[in-house]
Specification:
Largest sheet: none
Structural class: mainly alpha
Oligomer: single chain
Distance between the termini: 10 Å
Number of strands: 0
Length: 308
């Protein structure tokens, strides 16, 4: 296990370097000159002299590889430069909005776990019945609806028509329910099928027949034996879904005016704030890499036979 941990950790280093290079190169392949963009954002006339001065200030007059290694050195110290719009350090702006995104992602993850487990148990108890088929059909439809359309539907029905929740923002504690529900609905159907299928497979195992022979009730067999043995795969899948939840808040935060990192990225795209876009791509990619590493370790811990 220790050798596998060290080997996977060493494999992350070249992947992280490749991610940083791609994040840096993408911003340098844009058709707009970052120096001219920075001047226009700050309402400065982009004369040739002003552009040359800004390029020197941003370090754009240096060769590409020299700029990349300089940016990577500063990025390892969590210094991603300054925003073109606010002139404040990029990492400070990200830290200011990160708690709102983490709160939203954690609430959505709670919805996913609770609703998926509850509906999976109901489906298994009513296997192939009308309730089982109805739940799966509804979740299939909800999963197929795009997130932005689902968000608008929830706003129109629960916020505008019924006036149960705020339309946008995070002024009240229950304002998080609609954006978290919108974010979670795309995952609940997936985990419902995953947990239900695993539980049905576990019900065919010999230990279930032995438990029934001992006279245990079906409810106890499901809750005490089948459900715990069915969660290994789901735990690994949820671990991989955590960075997807955090990165997937871009659309939801824009719809509900949620002041998180996703909305910061959207504003940076529209404002051509390249340092923030660059840092967002780099950090989100590292987040996916980290949680994939944690999921692999968890999988090897739960089933050591997979260690190669």
């Amino acid at each position: 296990m220790r050798q596998y941990f060290v080997r996977r950790l060493l494999m992350m280093i070249p992947l992280a370097i490749l991610i940083s290079f791609i994040a840096f190169a993408l911003m340098n392949l844009t058709p707009s000159d970052p120096a001219e963009v920075a001047l226009r954002i700050n309402e400065v006339v982009p004369t040739p002299q002003a552009i040359a001065g800004m390029r020197q200030e941003l370090g754009l007059d240096a060769p590409f590889l020299q700029r990349y290694f300089s940016w990577l050195q500063h990025a390892l110290q969590l210094d991603f430069g300054r925003s073109f719009l606010t002139r404040t350090p990029v990492f400070e702006e990200i830290l200011a909005v990160l708690p709102a995104t983490l709160w939203l992602a954690a609430t959505a993850l709670t919805f996913i776990v609770l609703i998926s487990l509850s509906l999976s148990l109901v489906c298994v108890l009513t296997q192939n019945g009308y309730l089982d088929r109805g739940i799966r059909a509804v979740m299939f439809v909800l999963t197929a609806i795009p997130g932005y359309w689902m968000g608008l539907l929830l706003i129109w029905t629960l916020a505008v028509k019924m006036d149960w929740f705020p339309v946008s923002g995070m002024q009240s504690p229950h304002a998080i329910i609609l954006p978290a529900l919108t974010l979670s609905l795309g995952y609940i159907g997936t985990y419902l099928r995953l947990i239900r299928g695993t539980m049905l497979s576990q019900l065919q195992q010999p230990y279930v027949f032995y438990a029934r022979a001992r006279g245990l009730s079906e409810r106890r067999i499901l809750l005490r034996h089948v459900l715990p043995n069915s969660l290994h795969t789901s735990l690994i899948a949820i671990g991989i879904s955590i960075p997807k939840l955090i990165a997937g808040t871009v659309v939801v935060e824009s719809i509900f005016a949620w002041p998180g990192i996703g909305r910061l990225c959207i504003n940076a795209i529209f404002g051509r704030d390249y340092p923030i876009i660059q840092a967002y791509i780099f950090l989100m990619a590292l987040l996916f890499l980290f949680f994939n590493f944690i999921s692999d370790l968890l999988q090897q811990y739960l089933d050591p036979r997979l260690i190669r």
